Known about the structure:
Blueprint: E1 2-7, H1 11-25, E2 30-36, E3 52-53, E4 64-67, H2 74-79, E5 87-90, E6 105-111, E7 127-132, H3 135-148, E8 151-154, H4 157-187, H5 196-205, H6 211-214, H7 218-221, H8 224-233, H9 237-252
Parallel strand pairs: 1-2, 1-4, 2-3, 4-5, 5-6, 7-8
Antiparallel strand pairs: 6-7
Amino acid sequence: MTKVIIIGSGNVAQHLIAAFQNSQKLGTEIDLIQVFSRQKESIAHLLDLDKITDDLATLEEADLYIIAVSDDAIPAVSSLLSFKNRLVVHTSGSIPLNALDDDNRKGVFYPLQTFTKHKEVDFKTIPICLESENATDFQLLEKVAKIISDKVFAINSEQRKALHVAAVFVNNFANHLYQIGSEICQENQVPFEILKPLITETAQKIMVLSPEEAQTGPAKRNDSATIRTHEAFLSNENHLKIYKTLTQSIQHNGKKL
């Protein structure tokens, strides 16, 4: 039985807790023995209180310690661990492996997904990107990851940095564009609901086509008349700047602007 401890209680931590709890119900060889949270009540709905501690000094001995805290806090939290030569990993997409304290063996257990509290996800579909300092530790990480996910990858720190930047473009920036679209609809008394089938179809197309093949619209067609009409319509300077930047990027198709 592989003993796991999670350090943290935010979005990623809570979804990992749920994933490990679900795997235990299925009789897997994973035992989530303890979770550290500064506020025990924040995760009391996920597991028994006797498995939650608010004191890092009381962490039990485990095979794997997963630090799931904010990126800025990872080095400090890893340096506060009182034990040595155990496998400690973080869950960040942008923090390198060597940010972890040298007293313990280092690794990364990065689930690449957008997480929101109280919004369930199917962890089996979530890619988990792994990195470690040695092959033995990687084998352990791979064993644990494959219990909760069907998509497990060996990704080094530089590759993970690239993935994280790409994820910001396809997730965070795309969602911000949804927000702008929603604002434009609201300002003109149009239900944003009308755009949702288009959003769904756009996302589904790249499952069978490359993003380049799936690209449509006035910028792709070089429809200058429509582009000028849109630019004249946009009274919000920020929206207009984003429209012009993205239009130019599409027209140059990734070439230097």
